[in-house]
Amino acid sequence: MTERPIRSGWLDYHLYNFKFEDAIVIEEDPEFPVSEMYGDSLRHVEPDDTAVSELFDQYGCCIYEYDLGDSWEHEIVIEKRLRESPKYAVLVCLAGARHRPPEDVGGPGGYAEFLDTIRDEKDPERDNLLIIFEQGKLTSRIGRGASCGRGRVDRVPAAPGR
Known about the structure:
22% of the residues lie in helices and 16% in strands. By secondary structure, it is α+β, with helices and mostly antiparallel strands. The strands form 2 sheets. A 5-stranded mixed beta sheet has the order 3-2-1-4-5, with no helix packed on it. A two-stranded antiparallel sheet has the order 6-7.
């Protein structure tokens, strides 16, 4: 059974997939067959038929996509395998920056707009966005330095092209 979406604080109600070199792990939708969506070059693997960790025994990396509408893509690279033990029984985020984007913020472009708006305390939409996305208690972490594992960012850079 596939490990359900990467633990990031998202609510796990969107479709997702794991794309490996020649395989894709995705729940097939009868209205959108995998072969029509991704072509015949990828072998389709049903999420309930295998564990993603088993596929990493064959492949060293994959692209994990969450929310196929917003298309949040994450490259997952296995850099080192540790001996299995209770201490190393789960995935560990070794580096990163910022808190995860809010669910349904509109993909990378919507997230850039969200960050621009919440950074501007004079923006009339700021308070509304913080309420809608339930980020009120996270703004100091987003704006002043959030961390994941050992990674840290002390300021949020401006959105690209702004």
